C-alpha cells in the first residue's frame, strides 16, 4: 500500500517560508509599474537598495568584512558565477516587465523550475523523473501559447527577455546544487553589486524622480531581498520539490497586484498559458508516495 509523506513541524515552517518569500517577490512587478521609469533605471535603483540590505546582512552574519572574505575566498568561482546569474536574472525580469505585460512575464518565469530540471539534465547528468519530463513539455506549450500573442508586436522583445531571465535563474539553481555550502547572503549581495555596476551606463538619470526612488527603493531594500532570503531558506526544512510547488504563486499574485492597481488585465492566451504552466509545475513537483509491500510494517 502507499504510505503518505510525513508532515513534520519543520516541513510546515519550510512551506511557510516558501509561500512568504514568493509573495514578497511577486511584488516586484507592482513596484516596477509603480516606478514608471525605464527598466534599466528601475533595475539600477533596485540594485542600490539590495546592495545595502544584503551587504549589511552578509557582513553581520559573518562577523565582519575580514571574516567574510576569509570564509568565501576558497569558493570564489561558483560565487562569481552565481552572482552573475543572479544579477542577470533580476535585471532581465525588471526590464521585461517594462517592455511587455506583467502577466506575460510572470507566466514565462513560472517555467523556471522546469527549466532548471532540463539544464541539470544537460549539464550535470541529472535525469528528471517522468513527471518532471511531462511537466517540461506542458510548460513549453504554455510559454509558447503566451508568446504567440506577442509575435510581430513591440512586446515580443519583452517576452524574449523574460525567457532570458528564466534561463539565468534556472542555471543558478543548478550551480547552487553543485555548491550547497556557499554563503547565500554574500553571493546575493555580490550579484546586486554587479547589477548596480553593470547598469550605470544605461541609467536615464532624468527619469529618476521621487516616485521612482520610493518604488524601486522599497523593492530593492525590503521586499525583494527579504523574499529571496526567505524562499532560499525553505529547502533547508522542506524537500525541494515541495518548495518548488509554491513558485506558481508568483504567477497568480503578481498578475493580481498589477490587475488591481493598474487595471492591466491578462489576455485570454496569457490566462490559458498561465494555467497550463501552473498545472505543469504542480505535476512536476508532486511529492511521490513510497510504496511498501504487505510484509513491511506500516
Describe the structure.
The chain has 14 helices and two strands. It has helices at residues 9-25, 27-35, 39-62, 65-72, 76-99, 102-109, 112-123, 130-148, 156-178, 184-199, 210-233, 240-244, 248-262, 268-284; strands spanning 2-3, 290-291. The chain has a two-stranded antiparallel sheet. Helix 1 (9-25) packs parallel to helix 13 (248-262) and helix 5 (76-99) packs antiparallel against helix 9. The longest helix is centred in the N-terminal third of the chain and has 24 residues, at 39-62. 49% of the residues are buried.
Any key phrases for this structure?
mainly alpha; 2 strands; two-stranded antiparallel sheet; disordered C terminus
Low-pLDDT regions: 291-298
Order of helices and strands: EHHHHHHHHHHHHHHE
Q: Can you give the mean pLDDT?
A: 79
Percentage of helical residues? Answer: over 70%
Content-based structural category? mainly alpha
Largest sheet: 2 strands, antiparallel
Q: What is Rg?
A: 19 Å
> Count of helices?
14
Widest beta sheet: strand line-up:
1-2
Which strand-content bin applies to the residues?
under 5%
Termini gap: 9 Å
Kindly state the number of beta strands: 2
Instruction: Sum up the overall morphology in one term.
Output: globular
Amino acid at each position: 500500500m502507499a504510505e503518505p509523506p510525513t508532515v513534520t513541524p519543520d516541513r510546515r515552517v519550510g512551506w511557510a517560508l516558501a509561500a512568504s518569500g514568493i509573495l514578497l517577490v511577486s511584488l516586484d512587478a507592482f513596484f516596477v509599474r509603480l516606478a514608471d521609469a525605464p527598466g534599466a533605471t528601475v533595475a539600477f535603483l533596485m540594485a542600490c537598495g539590495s546592495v545595502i540590505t544584503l551587504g549589511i546582512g552578509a557582513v553581520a552574519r559573518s562577523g565582519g568584512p575580514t571574516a567574510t572574505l576569509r570564509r568565501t575566498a576558497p569558493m570564489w568561482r561558483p560565487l562569481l558565477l552565481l552572482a552573475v546569474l543572479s544579477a542577470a536574472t533580476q535585471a532581465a525580469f525588471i526590464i521585461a516587465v517594462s517592455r511587455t505585460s506583467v502577466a506575460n512575464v510572470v507566466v514565462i518565469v513560472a517555467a523556471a523550475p522546469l527549466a532548471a530540471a532540463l539544464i541539470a539534465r544537460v549539464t550535470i547528468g541529472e535525469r528528471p523523473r517522468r513527471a518532471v519530463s511531462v511537466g517540461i513539455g506542458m510548460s513549453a506549450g504554455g510559454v509558447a501559447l503566451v508568446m504567440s500573442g506577442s509575435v510581430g508586436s513591440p512586446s515580443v522583445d519583452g517576452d524574449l527577455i523574460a525567457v532570458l531571465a528564466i534561463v539565468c535563474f534556472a542555471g543558478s539553481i543548478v550551480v547552487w546544487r553543485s555548491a550547497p555550502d556557499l554563503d547565500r547572503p554574500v553571493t546575493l549581495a555580490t550579484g546586486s553589486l554587479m547589477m548596480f555596476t553593470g547598469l550605470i551606463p544605461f541609467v536615464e538619470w532624468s527619469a529618476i524622480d521621487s516616485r521612482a526612488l520610493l518604488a524601486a527603493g522599497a523593492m530593492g531594500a525590503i521586499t525583494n531581498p527579504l523574499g529571496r532570503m526567505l524562499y532560499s531558506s525553505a529547502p533547508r526544512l522542506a524537500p525541494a520539490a515541495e518548495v518548488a510547488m509554491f513558485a506558481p504563486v508568483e504567477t497568480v499574485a503578481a498578475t493580481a497586484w498589477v490587475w488591481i492597481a493598474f487595471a492591466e488585465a491578462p489576455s485570454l492566451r496569457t490566462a490559458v498559458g498561465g494555467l497550463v504552466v501552473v498545472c505543469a509545475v504542480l505535476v512536476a513537483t508532486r511529492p511521490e508516495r513510497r510504496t511498501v509491500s504487505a510484509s513491511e510494517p506500516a
